[in-house]
Amino acid sequence: MDYSYIPLTDPEKEQAGLLARQLHISPVIAEILYRRGVSSLEALREYLYPQLASLPDPFTMLGMKEAVTRVVEARLSGHPLYIHGDYDVDGISSTALLQAFFTEAGIQSFYYIPKRTEEQYGLSEHSLGKLLHKVSASLRPVLITVDCGISSFAEVLFARERFGCDVIITDHHLPAPELPEALAIINPKQPGCTFPFQHLAGVGVAFFFILALRRALVEASIFSKQTMPNLKNYLDLVALGTIADVVPLIDVNRTLVRAGLEVLATRKRTGVSALAESGNVMTAAITAEDVAFRLAPRINACGRLGQPELGVQLLLAQDRRQARELAAELENLNTQRKALENDIMPEIAAACADQAEQGRAALAVYNADCHPGILGILASRMAEQFNRPVILFTDDHMGSEGQVLKGSGRSVAEVNLHEALAQCQDALEQFGGHPMAAGLTIHLNQLEEFARLFHESVRQQMAMPRNQQAQMLVDYHLKAEHLLHHNFFQAVQLMEPCGEGNPEPVFLMQAEPLRQVRTVGNDEHVVFQIRIQGRTLPGVGFNLAQQYSDFSGNESALVFKLRQRYVNGREHTQMQVIEFLPD
Asked: How would DSSP label each residue in 459-470?
């Protein structure tokens, strides 16, 4: 990895310092954000202190008025609503969000999420039958999709004709040029939508839906302004789904997630409290990193292994004992998921390495023994390892055994995966997703042709030659004494939530002597302490034990991030080294 640090010019540094003084923040943070383009007082204030009051009007979203009007009508007539979700964290949290809000609003509702191991992604005749089998078409049932539906042309028609449904689609995936014939479609990416932000997760779209619906319920005198639900209480669910779906944590998403993390930290939702306990999230604050690496994988595990309803039940749980039992079930499923990954990983990695050695710009690997629930996470690991888009396939058990393949893909920063797949449509049955992630199905006899088209499409997109070394921008060349300031970590925390589009700050510091160095985790990781002017700071380098051994005593600098950790009942700041740089 090539680490690049571009210092500010003197005038830029002076301007950043002025901004720091005006807002009473650390000049280090002001310089980092200035370098990232947050270079005015208004932009910096909005970044550091996002306000829920500044969220866009939900009724600027195309289809919102029609959708809300129909739901209010259902509420007044006493008819139930039917929610169809998806089996990832975004879909599970979206489903829980609507179910919880409808319950608080006095609206009877039912939900269904398809099982990844038995049913296809999104709507299907099978999943609709499961959800709507007791419904009378004469009642004009209202079907609401969350995190799915934008590509379900035949299924929407089936719901209308078979069950008499008025269909409301809430989704955030990229739409095709034509849209399903639904009563209303709420998706900021659809043509003609004037909502000012396109990058919401599915749960973000669902949140704006209930935001609009609450206003309409007040106008219909079902609520007063004193009795209407406090929607901030739902933002913990929005934070879970938004972070897990790896959408950019900027603008509206940053506002939603920042507030959502505050709600998560209260642990007032019984299921979240149990999940945090199960995931060993013991710090007072819950960060985006905690959600991404501790909470979300446990929720995802139930969807990956075909039991997504457990995730919804956990997020809706009111009883503490039940929540702990459900969290324990998710923990067990997550352990099973890890075992499945570990069993198949070497075989998948070897197949990817073989294609990479052949010079493929993008990798397409089929393995009949791979569990369909772990395709996405394995594709993500392979994309990171080989620094190119990867799609992994296994047999689609909903299709003809061994003839239809289900695939899941993950990309890298410089490649829009959705656009790449759009260039391969001649070899695909169906596909959908985002620039960074997608799902698809193909026939086995089209696999080689797809792999060829995929390689060509990605090769044309690639802005950087494959043999050029990847770069990581360093945010700040830090002096050791900065780490002594008792509030420096709190200053860094102002940049939360960090994630896609707003990465954690990366620091470069001249190497200090490492003390009490030892290896842990089968000698793969290295832990140490740094002593600065009589104070000690602990550090860790994951998967860096060998590198440290090679450079021991000859490091010129450390590239690292700062993390808050909970050890022996106390919180402390920890240096997480990304790389030891040699002399």
From this structure: HHH-SS-TTSPP
Tokens coding 544: 């860096």
Distances (CA, A) of 66 to 70, 168, 213, 234, 489: 6, 9, 11, 23, 47
Phi/psi region, residue 306 (left: phi>0; alpha: psi -120 to 50; beta: rest), is left
Angle at 499 between CA 39 and CA 473, to 5 degrees: 60
**What type of residue sits at position 317?**
A
pTM of the model: 0.89
Q: How far apart are the first and last CA of the chain?
A: 15
Quick one: three-class SS letters along 507-576? EEEECCCEEEEEEECCCCEEEEEEEECCEEEEEEECCCHHHHHHHCCCEEEEEEEEEEEEECCEEEEEEE
Tokens of 448: 């080689």
Sheet holding 507-510, edge to edge: 476-477, 507-510, 555-567, 570-582, 535-541, 525-532, 514-520
Question: In the structure, what pLDDT confidence band is assigned to residue 471 with cuts at 50, 70 and 90?
Answer: low
Q: Which residues pair with 434 in a beta bridge?
A: none
Question: What single DSSP character describes residue 480?
Answer: G
Nearest to 301 by CA among 201, 391, 389, 371: 371
3-state secondary structure string across 12-23:
HHHHHHHHHHHH
